[in-house]
Design a protein that fits this description.
The protein is mainly alpha-helical and 41 residues long. The chain has 1 helix and no strands.
Amino acid sequence: MFVEISFLDIKYLIKYIELITAIIGSIYLFKPVVHLGNIDF
């Protein structure tokens, strides 16, 4: 069953992906600060 995706849904999906990417990026950015002597990615 194929569900048609509108441009509005794609716009919200892109914004959601950007939000998740920003959160993950900030976590990896502040990880060395939080774990100063125990840096592991």
